[in-house]
């Protein structure tokens, strides 16, 4: 059962960004997806990951970082500052939704979207509780990596050797809690059987650990 499950529009300056918001009946947190390399909210891989997160009680927002007109300019895909600013604006919109007023928010970034997610998470007022990168380019966040405070999980395929090396170098620059999860046999798009499911399970565990409210034991009745 969902409190909300449908298309949304978020205003960014003069542009409208399209997204899809799914909110479980009792959300334990919310995850914003930052797609990469010209991908959109219709990405089947990210939709599969989102479904795993939703079943764990997490709200998800898949949205387009670029407008249809902007997608025609390949340079926009690598304009990490623009993508990060849009991600921050969408996060502000999400915090204003009554169903998620108390929810912690995390970022899930793929490819160039991971660079944008980490760039945005490094902002002083970001208040992002966790970041997960799948096959990401965290190196694109540059010097901002050292300013990320949110616990960050880097998921990379063992056969994606170039990106794996970039992730190792990026992890060495980060000062927050980080973990590198290498998925055996996976290439960049996690197309091999079972590899995307393993990445999704790792993301789910990371977000549940860092976004779910802490349950304090009931005090003992001392008489």
Summarize this entry quickly.
The protein contains 5 helices and 8 strands. The chain is α/β, with parallel strands linked by helices and 223 residues long. It has a single domain, classed as Alpha/Beta hydrolase fold, catalytic domain (Rossmann fold, 3-Layer(aba) Sandwich).
Please report the distance between the alpha carbons of the first and last residues. Answer: 42 Å
DSSP summary: helix tally: 5
| Proportion of residues in extended strands | 25-35%
* Sheet/helix structural class: alpha/beta
The CATH class name reads Alpha Beta
Provide the helix percentage.
25-40%
Low-pLDDT runs: none
> Any idea of the CATH topology?
Rossmann fold
CATH architecture assignment name = 3-Layer(aba) Sandwich
Q: Using DSSP, what is the number of strands?
A: 8
Biggest sheet statistics: 8 strands, mixed
SSE order in H/E notation?
EEEHEHEHEEHEH
Radius of gyration: 17 Å
CATH superfamily placement: Alpha/Beta hydrolase fold, catalytic domain
- What would the principal axes of the Cα set say about the shape? globular
How are the strands of the biggest sheet laid out side by side? 1-2-4-3-5-6-7-8
- The count of domains is 1
Rounded mean pLDDT score: 91
